Amino acid sequence: TQNYRITLLPGDGIGPEIMAVAVDVLKVVGKQFDLEFEFQEALIGGAAIEATGEPLPSATLDTCRNSDAVLLAAIGGYKWDSLPSNLRPEAGLLGLRAGLGLFANLRPAKILPQLIDASTLKREVVEGVDIMVVRELTGGIYFGKPKGIFATETGEKRGLNTMVYSESEIERIGRVAFEAARKRGGKLCSVDKANVLEVSQLWRDRITQLSQEYPDIELSHLYVDNAAMQLVRAPKQFDTIVTGNLFGDILSDAAAMLTGSIGMLPSASLGASGPGVFEPVHGSAPDIAGLDKANPLAQVLSAAMMLRYGLDQPKAADHIEQAVLQVLEQGDRTGDIISPGKNLLGCRAMGDALILA
Amino acid sequence: TQNYRITLLPGDGIGPEIMAVAVDVLKVVGKQFDLEFEFQEALIGGAAIEATGEPLPSATLDTCRNSDAVLLAAIGGYKWDSLPSNLRPEAGLLGLRAGLGLFANLRPAKILPQLIDASTLKREVVEGVDIMVVRELTGGIYFGKPKGIFATETGEKRGLNTMVYSESEIERIGRVAFEAARKRGGKLCSVDKANVLEVSQLWRDRITQLSQEYPDIELSHLYVDNAAMQLVRAPKQFDTIVTGNLFGDILSDAAAMLTGSIGMLPSASLGASGPGVFEPVHGSAPDIAGLDKANPLAQVLSAAMMLRYGLDQPKAADHIEQAVLQVLEQGDRTGDIISPGKNLLGCRAMGDALILA
Ligand SMILES: CC(C)[C@H](C(=O)O)[C@@H](O)C(=O)O
Ligand SMILES: CC(C)[C@H](C(=O)O)[C@@H](O)C(=O)O
Q: Membrane-spanning regions, if any (chains A, B) (predicted)?
């Protein structure tokens, strides 16, 4: 038996209900594959603010550090939107990324044949789309200094942030991306704004240099505005994309939306060593929280990514992904992905269907 | 007779051929509306680099300053891609924007019923889409300092740029956007990343404050990642969008691509006073330059925007826009927007069709 300590961060909104489903699925799969999970729950986001006044209590970070992987659901809600930014749920997420050194964010956007009609794009445009966005997650303008709101001599305020990357930061995310491309279609597109930004020129130079170590990977470069366009125009041209923190935030969401069902999309955030964090791409959906209406599949697929990338248990991961495909194949749908003739299930019932699948 | 001095900047690639069509159309419309245009041509971009070694010779900026409006075609090409960035064609464009103080960039993305099938999105998703992106154009990370590539103590290089906005910069673009929304559907969506960036917090605060002066406009706020998503998910929800330089670059291109035909989209760049610059959204398309294959309609519609926003001649602008709709209605198409059963025309022939329309 293989033992794993897993920290669960259910967070806010629909977080607890989708997390409950993922845990049930993990327990069943654990039995089948002889894996034993020790789950420990901790507070983050709005839930942590309510209980402790802080979005990321230090006890939470300690618990995460002492585990083999972290499964996160979702954070945030209207309730905390007017707090100062360093006390908001989002600050907990950024603190977690920085605290665990999670510099590599993997965001797959894959069209599932069963859900292709959920896309707002034409079938022939999105059929077969399978994109992996590799986003740098602990650098760039999210963490660069100086930053803040300052008064000028005239008394006028100026807000500023700094977009900054060092060669070593670029190289380390570049390596993750080249390796990911190697396991996929062998194509890597690096996205920057090198025609305007110096930080992007360094990015492009370093990625280009690095490509000499990966002669089997076909490297291309796009400016971020063109990349946003190409995702809408012809998304099938993309295999793996690598980009900085801010551009990755924007492009991975655009790519996710091509699938039409962000309730289906997981993500992984990984560091050089230590536990990774696995979480759905979607938010906490406070409007449907507690109503048993949420789609738990992105959370369940995040658990699969945890098995694959965090615990090196690809077979158990495959098994979960197959179960998801099977429930879709048999017509089970939550409200966000329902279409005529399919079976509408609640969050809990979708979990039960997965366990039987 | 009203007299206007117009600077023409044909630039690179297909620039000269589409500019020739726009000039012919302006001449004809001028006669009909009793407007006299004095055209003066000047160098910019790659063409200027070849002739003078600089992407924006000072003579060009002087000529522009001494005119009532500037009509620009397109700049850039593979040929100049390996030059250092301050000598590249793009530097000419940025210099023109800064030199003329063009802080407001208006980028309409409107679905034309005749071309709706060119969109990669489903008809029901894009039918009726009519978005105006108001992008700040002389501030933000495009011009913020410090910037550059620096060596750290360890010898490692760091690239950095500064995203900065002052209250007065936010206010002045905000006013343009609120006024634009007032002439349109009365809805304004401000896009930022206020959950992470201080510069965006100032942006959101200042726009919110300003909205008190525009009680008739319905203001909303979106984070840039969500905005990119919503443009793909449900673009009809947008009327007018206001955002900073970098986010505007990305989102206006994504919005443009929703129409499926960026060969049709014009833009206007305006300052507090002095001449504006009017140009197509598309690039210089070096691969089809000189082949009489380019679509001149975005250039012609840019001339219409010049008449409307630069010279206050809305009737002449209407007339050009009607002519464009009429040639589309009668089935005339260039190669980029051709579909079965339509008449394929070259660039020149499309110009002739417009003049007869
Ligand atoms: C909530 C927010 C801070 C976060 C980000 O911008 O990284 C989110 O949009 C994401 O992509 O995970
Ligand atoms: C060519 C480039 C400098 C420019 C920009 O980024 O502003 C272009 O993409 C645009 O949007 O006009």
A: none
